[in-house]
Amino acid sequence: MSTDEMIEAPPAPAHPHPHPPVRPRILPRLAGRAPAPPPTGTALHTISAVTAVLLALVAVGSVVHEPVLIPPLAASAAIVHSVPSSPLAQPRSVIAGHLLCAGVGYAVLAALGSAPWAAALAAGVGLAVMTVARTPHSPACATAVVIVLHHPAPATFVPLLAGAVVVVVLAGWAASYARRGAPRYPAYWW
After folding, report:
1. What is the pLDDT of residues 150-190, one digit of tens each?
2. Considering the chain, what is the average pLDDT of its residues?
3. Are 155 and 57 contacting, i.e. CB atoms less than 8 angstroms apart?
4. Dihedral of the CA atoms 76, 82, 86, 91 (nearest 10)?
5. Structural domain for 106, as ranges
6. Per the domain annotation, does 11 fall within a domain?
7. What is the pLDDT of residues 38-84, one digit of tens each?
8. What is the mean predicted confidence (pLDDT) over 21-49?
9. Model confidence pLDDT, tens digit, residues 87-113
């Protein structure tokens, strides 16, 4: 075979579609391992339960004239009601996680003042403290951030935070018994 013949090899046949079909065995890999979405009734129950507990926190805040609903508590309610069997959702993690991170937030605020970099440091230290205490709850890191950036008075904020996380946990417990067949919450109390 000459060099000219090797260079002038016929082009590969064109595929009728611009992209070749995906092999069936690849599709499960692309889909991931996420579970199927919950039934509509379960989703509506979760939405209404989370909304009810958040509105209750707003009502308490209106009565005491203090903000009780802070973003980390909304995230905590979502975790408790959406994935009640997760270690992040258990009462030990929800309650102790927020209180430990509040302590970290106030310590960082006292030592370094209110600055975005100090808030980031408080979140990281809060995560480390929760990990050592075996109370993982990611929304609690945001509690440390809120404290450093907004410096609420500890005498009012900490009791309201403690009460609010107890309300979130009790609402999760009540909601798990309100719907037949729902997973029971909590998997363990402490």
Report:
1. 999 999 999 999 999 999 999 999 888 887 777 788 988 88
2. 84
3. no
4. 40
5. 70-190
6. no
7. 555 565 657 778 888 888 889 988 898 888 888 999 999 999 988 89
8. 60
9. 999 999 999 999 999 999 999 999 999
Tell me the chain's radius of gyration from C-alpha atoms. Answer: 25
Domain count, the chain: 1
What length is written for the chain? 190
> Phi, psi at residue 34, to the nearest 5°?
-65, 140
Q: Who contacts 182 (Cβ-Cβ below 8 Å, separation ≥6)?
A: 42, 45, 175, 176
| Amino acid (one-letter) located at 109 | L
53: number of Cβ within 10 Å: 26
Is 114 contained in some domain? yes
The amino acid present at 108, given as its one-letter code, is V
Three-class secondary structure assignment of the chain: CCHHHHHCCCCCCCCCCCCCCCCCCCHHHHHCCCCCCCCHHHHHHHHHHHHHHHHHHHHHHHHHCCCCCCHHHHHHHHHHHHCCCCHHHCHHHHHHHHHHHHHHHHHHHHHHCCCHHHHHHHHHHHHHHHHHHCCCCCHHHHHHHHHHHHCCCHHHHHHHHHHHHHHHHHHHHHHHHHCCCCCCCCCCCC
Q: Indicate whether 12 belongs to any domain.
A: no
